[in-house]
Design brief:
With 177 residues, the chain is α+β, with helices and mostly antiparallel strands. It has helices at 3-6, 59-80, 138-149; strands spanning 9-10, 16-20, 23-28, 31-36, 41-46, 49-54, 83-90, 95-99, 102-106, 113-116, 121-124, 130-135, 161-164. The N and C termini lie far apart (57 Å). It comes from Donghicola mangrovi.
């Protein structure tokens, strides 16, 4: 039994959900998001809550049950509060700046890295060593943060690179003479 799937997802005030087939569409103050579930689950809207039930007891149905409930909960969180990822840049001379629809990254390469910001994500750089990504789609915000981080992942000897806010990098001991 899925412990996550058993819980119904509550719809806060100002948020409406509509169901057409296996596609649920959630509208809120920040925008509209939709999710199409597989045929292994049944989605029902009961007044102020959304409930997900498995169609059968197969392993796939049970997997889709909890995942579908989590996806619907993320839609509701996205249209009400939104999602935010914060990145810190550590390293001498490493910095970032937003210019229009591009994030310019100086990461120690012989050239600047120009990262195009996808639609649906807003990027801000309050300091040259901080990047803040915000949006209503959790998957898109997380994927964009991961792509920016991939340009210079934190290395284990000095800790230089782009890391998530609060991420701990285990420091290795260097070579001894």
């Amino acid at each position: 039994m899925s412990r996550i799937g058993k819980k119904p997802v509550e719809l806060p005030s100002g948020v409406s959900a509509s169901l057409s087939g296996q596609t649920i569409e959630v509208k809120g103050p920040k925008g509209t998001l939709s999710f199409t579930a597989t045929d292994d689950v049944t989605i029902t809207i009961d007044g102020n809550s959304v409930k997900v039930d498995p169609r059968g007891s197969s392993k796939r149905a049970r997997q889709q049950w909890g995942m579908s409930r989590s996806m619907i909960a993320n839609l509701i969180t996205g249209v009400t509060a939104g999602f935010k990822k914060e990145l810190d840049i550590v390293g001498v001379g490493y910095r970032a700046a937003v210019a229009g629809n591009v994030v310019k990254l100086n990461l120690g390469y012989s050239h600047d890295v120009d990262f195009a910001i996808p639609a649906g994500v807003t990027v801000a750089t309050p300091k040259p060593t901080e990047i803040v990504l915000e949006g209503i789609d959790a998957q898109l915000v997380g994927e964009t943060a991961a792509k920016i981080r991939d340009w210079r992942r934190p290395e284990p000897y000095k800790g230089k690179g782009i890391r998530y806010r609060g991420e701990y990098i285990f420091q290795k001991e260097g070579k001894k003479k």
